[in-house]
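Thread: Newbie trying to understand structure tokens

Hi all, I'm a second-year student working on a class project, and my supervisor (Dr. K.) asked me to get a predicted structure for one chain before our next meeting. I've only ever worked with sequences, so writing a 3D structure as a token string is new to me. If someone could post the tokens and maybe explain what I'm looking at, I'd be very grateful. Here's the chain:
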Amino acid sequence: MDNPAFVPSSPGQPRRDRPREEPRLGPAVSVPSVSVSASSVRLEAEEEGPCGWGRFAPAPLQRCNNPRGYLLHYSLLALVQGIVVNGLVNISISTIEKRYELNSSLTGLVSSSYDISFCVLSLFVSFYGERGHKPRWLAFSSFMIGLGSLVFCLPHFTTGAYEYGSKFEDTCPAPVNSSSQNKCSGSITSSLSSYLYVFVLGQLMLGVGGTPLYTLGTAFIDDSVAIHKSSLYIGIGYAMSILGPAIGYVLGGQLLTLYIDINRSTRTDINEDDPRWLGAWWIAFLLSWILAWSLIVPFSCFPKHLPGTAMIQAAKVSQTHQDRSVTMVTDENFGESFKDFPMALLILLKNPVFVSLVISTTTEALITTGFATFLPKFIENQFGKSSSTAATLGGLVLIPGAALGQVLGGAIASKSKMNCQNVMKFALASSAMSLLLSFVFLFAKCGNEPFAGVSEAYNGTGKLGKLEAPCNANCSCLRSFYYPVCGKDDVQYFSPCTAGCTNQITSDHQRMYYNCSCVGKADPVLESAENETYEAKAGKCETKCKNLPLFLGFFFFTVVFTFMAATPITVAVLRCVPDKQRSFALGVQFVFLRLLGTIPGPILFGAAIDSSCTLWDLNNCGMRGACWIYDNTKMAYMLIGISAACKVITLCFNGLALFVYRPPPKKDNATASQPGEVDPTKAPRQEQPPTG
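---
Reply by user tm_fold:
Sure, no problem. This is what the structure looks like when written as tokens:
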């Protein structure tokens, strides 16, 4: 128990540990360097209550009526939110595209809908919720996250069974349907594409649910614990939100191995290796709906303030950046009316420390979201790994590294009992280390392996930049299906068809191809050593670049140091603003973070990666589709350039925040026994609990 002295009494009974009300209550006595007045202490103490609903407060519920109990439920909700928004949605996008005939630009709108909803509501929710019942706001958050998950999977139940069509052949000669292959059908749309609006609605609801979680929910943690514990509690909560995507990827990936119509009595003759296969993407959303709604009841029973919050607040030393705007929020009623909204926003934007910290977190968010989206593609192309292997390796580096960094950053700041100034110094040092480690791209980059039609000609025939050559001229290959095969000549081919292969066999779950007219002869020494008769095998050629372990190791520590600064920066944001604006400050921070960080981040990284493309897919209408082959060296330099530039901006603004920060002047009658806390023996008499 964090505060065993503040166990609530039975409903209806006066609390013995509350400050006694004096018969005469004059003006609120402001204590120098102390963040709350005596009147606010009494007000918050009256709002502290047992865990329950009105007079119904069962004794077992009181075991959770403390910061640890709240942190447990906060972490569970953050976990569910991470599973759905950053895990299941991302892993289901490609399946949704195929099932509902949507292009990538439309599914990009689906992905962005969450951020749009979050940005629109963040300022208003954080402003009005600051003085409201924060746990009940999180009960509403649980409801909306569950409802958004339910709505997102509804299209599966309102459409018929999935029709996967005729069998697809990947060898030469491929069957050609002239009526379908030569017709430009770019203007034809399907009625299934109308479900786009249902997916957007689901994402908007998820954004509504996520807004109170990361603004009011985080501020409630800071309200309820001692100042030196806040960073640890926030770090644990944020780490759980990072673990959510990992669980989402694992859970969603496993469910995609089940056929999409598992709930219908349909018969299928295809397996996962078939390009027409679609997995049961919708099951995980149903599970998330149940988990999210199971948290509504626990959050609804928490009191407005946890027992002991008033005395914890009274013992905190204000670390607000001192400037003229601080005096504007001394009024007890400030923030209760919408008329105060413009002034509250202006106060934050005129705080140079707050603005500097917001810009630094925005540039870091741009990098992290960019890499979270495209790290698997980078690993796949640089080191010749399959998509599934690259996604697994990327997840093993990003998720544990980010979670470890969040917990370490919060634990170090908590254990060292850092004040606001020292927290910013710690974040600056962590950001500097991540900048140095990010140059690993320069040493771990790989060149391109031989690729027929791209980096070298087909046995000296054909032209670079074209997959067609005399050896596969009669194959009628479909360029829109990328099935790389590795020939015995150590040259990679776009597909078995472009390699001119006419026969195939599956041995030990590995597809082998024969009679490949485009594959050159292998080295006689290697051929006799391998003693194999196939001419090509499915998959990319094994890369000669052995830098993958080096890259993964250094990138892991880069992620750790990057996220090690995240929790201290959040704590610094809560400290440098007036106490009445902590929730609102987080709301403003998240608006800028998403508008200038998480939304443009994937777009910027995607444009940089596309600029290194050497072979594009062209449809029958001549329009450019996906990129198949990249210039690895150019890709590495582009990504390191963006990362280094953003991290330099982060360092500059972290340093600026530290330089312009002015802490409150120290007072002799409120000497702190440790950074951020007041010595109880020297606290004002009227703010101490009664002794008997």
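A couple of things are worth pointing out once you decode it. The radius of gyration is 30 Å. The chain has three domains: 1-6+31-161+194-315, 341-446+546-661, 470-538. Feel free to ask follow-ups in this thread.
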